[in-house]
Amino acid sequence: MDVPAPSLVAAVLRARRALVRVVRAELEDAGFSDLPRTGALYLSHLEDGPRSVGALAAATDLPKQMVSQVLDTLVTRGYARREPDALDRRRVTVSLTPRGLAAAGVAREAVAARVRALVAREGAARVRAALEVLTALVEGAAAEEAT
User: Fold this and answer.
1) CATH number of 50's domain
2) Measured between alpha carbons, how far is 18 from 58 in angstroms, rounded to an integer?
3) pLDDT means per 10 residues in the chain (147 residues)?
4) Backbone angles phi, psi at 94, to 5 degrees
């Protein structure tokens, strides 16, 4: 079977946009309407504990300057806080406030609910296979960039 590359890319982008819309709606319904457009992504990376701006930039594959700007907004709006690193006072770490943790929980549950619905509709094997294919696509692109 021939798979048209533009169709695959378009489907991935549409899926991402649909999931982002659902998460945004859930966050707004829960009272987090002032969260920046990409804020849920940052919250998900901070949910496991404090990170440096550099670590967040690497995790999100975004430039440090862009990450720092979004973090400024998250701090100003009470979702995150910046603190000196306990081991290296020259470094700053970012962690979630209770408000940030609550918003991260809403976003995480919104995604989990959509995945559960997808598994119920398509079956766990198909969802796992889709994840494997998308992971291979990302890893292949990363390998090509490295060469």
Assistant:
1) 1.10.10.10
2) 25
3) 78 93 96 94 94 92 93 97 85 95 97 96 96 90 76
4) -120, 135
